[in-house]
């Protein structure tokens, strides 16, 4: 998977997805999350484990958790488990194995092709963050971070972590945040508010954020007072965080605006992608303390 050219490029607003199946349903995971794909191997069951957790397996000396994606999505189990596949993924600074039924192919697409799910079937509890139309079929882009958070709530962003920084004065600085997950937008709102930042403007994707920023930049006299810093996720429908950062840094007025990429995809292998587009900092979720300290460093 690491030989893919998409891993070397940045700011194109494109991605490659691995299409996989659970029963008759088709889903997708970002290639940047995938380390390798394996045939079934023995899994050791763990007593009293979460219902989504099949157990653990050993891979080249590492002991990794195995998540049953069908169980996590409330779908039926495989009818032919010998043909199932294991997707070894790395994000949020950890490796996890996802048990799926089939893996079909890799597609290169634009983030603009990924549509936001309708509020009729999305909701804050949904694991679907986007819908992709491919060859007359719909492929659902899964929120794997949400699945892991359901299994282990302590792995997410927590207000209690910010409280460890001690009492903080209220900040008048204004921050724009691009994050597609409703759950994570609320977490960021709560934690950054606790950290003293009271002027937070949230957007569901990079396209909405850059439209807002470019509109502000039309009035250069008030722009510097309107926003002082941008925080962006990477994976977002319509426009990803790398392309958003690139657009900001290439804009004659916006270019001096500090940009922090706050994403589960910040790894040693992928950090160069943020550097290429000019990000001022890159911090892996869920390191909220590090994010707050970096905001202080860049704008206070």
UniProtKB/TrEMBL annotation:
InterPro entries: Chemotax_regulator_CheV (IPR024181), CheW-like_dom_sf (IPR036061), CheW-lke_dom (IPR002545), CheY-like_superfamily (IPR011006), Sig_transdc_resp-reg_receiver (IPR001789). One of its GO terms (molecular function) is transferase activity. Pfam families: CheW, Response_reg. PROSITE patterns: CHEW (PS50851), RESPONSE_REGULATORY (PS50110). Its EC number is 2.7.3.-. It comes from Mesobacillus selenatarsenatis (strain DSM 18680 / JCM 14380 / FERM P-15431 / SF-1). One of its GO terms (biological process) is chemotaxis. Keywords: Phosphoprotein, Transferase. Residues 174-300 form the Response regulatory domain. The keyword Transferase applies. This is Chemotaxis protein CheV. Residues 14-153 form the CheW-like domain. The modification 4-aspartylphosphate is found at residue 233. Coiled coil: none annotated.
């Amino acid at each position: 998977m690491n030989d893919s050219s998409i891993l070397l490029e940045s700011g194109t607003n494109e991605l490659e997805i691995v299409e996989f199946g659970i029963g008759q349903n088709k889903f997708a995971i970002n290639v940047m999350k995938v380390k390798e794909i394996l045939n079934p191997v023995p899994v050791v069951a763990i007593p009293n484990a979460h219902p989504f957790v099949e157990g653990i397996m050993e891979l080249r000396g590492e002991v990794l958790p195995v998540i049953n994606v069908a169980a996590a999505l409330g779908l039926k189990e495989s009818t032919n488990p010998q043909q199932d596949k294991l997707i070894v993924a790395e994000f949020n600074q950890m490796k996890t194995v996802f048990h799926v039924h089939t893996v079909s192919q890799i597609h290169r697409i634009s983030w603009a092709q990924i549509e936001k799910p309708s509020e009729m079937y999305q909701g804050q509890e949904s694991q679907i963050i986007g819908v992709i139309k491919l060859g007359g079929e719909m492929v659902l882009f899964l929120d794997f971070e949400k699945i892991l958070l359901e299994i282990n709530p302590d792995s997410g962003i927590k207000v209690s972590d910010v409280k460890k920084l001690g009492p903080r004065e209220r900040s008048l600085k204004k921050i724009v945040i691009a994050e597609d997950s409703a759950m994570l937008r609320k977490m960021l709102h709560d934690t950054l508010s606790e950290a003293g930042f009271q002027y937070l403007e949230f957007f569901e994707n990079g396209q909405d954020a850059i439209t807002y920023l470019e509109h502000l930049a039309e009035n250069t006299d008030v722009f510097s007072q309107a926003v002082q810093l941008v925080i962006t996720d990477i994976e977002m429908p319509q426009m990803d965080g790398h392309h958003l950062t690139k657009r900001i840094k290439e804009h004659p007025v916006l270019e001096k605006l500090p940009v922090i990429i706050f994403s589960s995809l910040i790894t040693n292998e992928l950090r160069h992608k943020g550097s290429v587009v000019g990000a001022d900092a890159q911090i892996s979720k869920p390191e909220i303390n590090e994010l707050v300290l970096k905001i202080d460093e860049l704008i206070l």
